[in-house]
Write a structure and sequence with these properties.
5-stranded antiparallel beta sheet; 4-stranded mixed beta sheet; 1 helix
Length: about 325
């Protein structure tokens, strides 16, 4: 535990102790009278030597720079060293502050250094993680790391229609804007550039130039199908129902239909009916062959219940009558 000068009694303790140690210092005096036993006098003192503890001088936080997915946890570690560069155990106070140091975020990091972003911390923002200890000399020693919040890999895609317009049936010829939203496992929005497709030939889907996460759906044939957005082996979809558009024209034919479909289409090629014979006419409605922007689209048949009438070409002659069900 140390050494002592036999002449002066000066004790010098060991400086490299790592724990307290106990010893004894002994002094012997020999007198010039009496028996040998009487002449020798001894004295003892107990010596306790404690190690010298150097004050904390620095703190290193690891990892020192890291990207953290918002919603995930990140463990930080703090290591302290004294003025001699020897590592020492520390129990720091943790905190998270803004990149400019102007504000602290409560409850963003636990007492044992586990970070988890709070709701107000935005994707793309940067923060400083501090570990602080007041040393034996009353000095505040601090270590820090930097983190930035990011999104995780794409986990799911949601396809939504503007104004929830896909909830109800959509008329053929009208256009609907749709948007694909990507999410990671923590429901953070992830930028995507999906491929668009439509099933069951109920229309056409085209991405918006410069913003592929948006598209325009042009419904065509009446029926039901799905709008699908695909990216990185993930897909999202929305179900749509297309119904015929507004009535644009009515086509009249006979039952049975003539072998030549052009018969009866105009005055130059009339349908010739012998006097006294009955002819059954049928009428079918159609929507437009172009959409709201004038682009071509499929024509849908519309069930109609027409009011029938017969008018001669000179509007004078009585050429016959027609019933409510089209029998002439």
């Amino acid at each position: 535990i140390g050494s002592i000068d036999p002449q002066t009694g000066l004790f010098v303790n060991e400086i490299n102790l790592d724990e307290p140690r106990t010893g004894q210092a002994t002094a012997v005096a020999v007198m010039d009278r009496g028996t040998e036993r009487e002449r020798t006098i001894r004295g003892m003192a107990t010596v306790v030597v404690s190690p010298t503890i150097s004050p904390l001088a620095s703190i290193t936080v690891t990892p020192d720079s890291v990207q953290v997915i918002k919603g995930a946890e990140q463990k930080f570690m703090a290591a302290g060293r004294d003025t001699d560069g020897v590592e020492m155990a520390i129990y720091p106070e943790w905190s998270v502050i803004s990149d400019d140091g102007g504000s602290e975020v409560p409850k963003a990091i636990s007492v044992d250094g586990i970070f988890s972003a709070t709701p107000e911390m935005q994707i793309g923002s940067s923060w400083r993680v501090l570990a602080q200890v007041t040393n034996s000399q009353g000095q505040l020693i601090q270590g820090e790391a930097r983190l930035s919040l990011t999104t995780g890999p794409l986990q799911s895609i949601e396809v939504v229609c503007s104004g929830d317009s896909c909830v109800d049936p959509i008329e053929s010829g009208k256009r609907v804007e749709v948007e694909a939203i990507g999410y990671d496992q923590f429901r953070n929005q992830v930028a995507i550039s999906p491929e668009w497709k439509i099933t069951d030939e109920v229309g056409v889907i085209k991405p918006v130039s410069g913003a592929r996460y948006k598209a325009v759906f042009s419904p065509g044939l009446a029926g039901s199908g799905e709008i699908i957005a695909e990216d990185e082996s993930r897909e999202g979809k929305v179900h749509v129902i297309v119904i015929p558009g507004q009535l644009a024209d009515i086509e009249i034919s006979t039952d049975p239909a003539p072998s030549d479909e052009s018969i009866g289409m105009n005055e130059a090629n009339p349908l010739i009916v012998k006097s006294g014979l009955d002819v059954r006419f049928i009428a079918s409605g159609h929507d437009s062959d172009v959409d709201a922007q004038g682009d071509a689209k499929p024509i849908n048949i519309i069930d109609i219940f027409p009011i029938w009438s017969v008018v001669s070409s000179d509007e004078v002659a009585d050429i016959g009558s027609i019933s409510s069900d089209g029998r002439f």
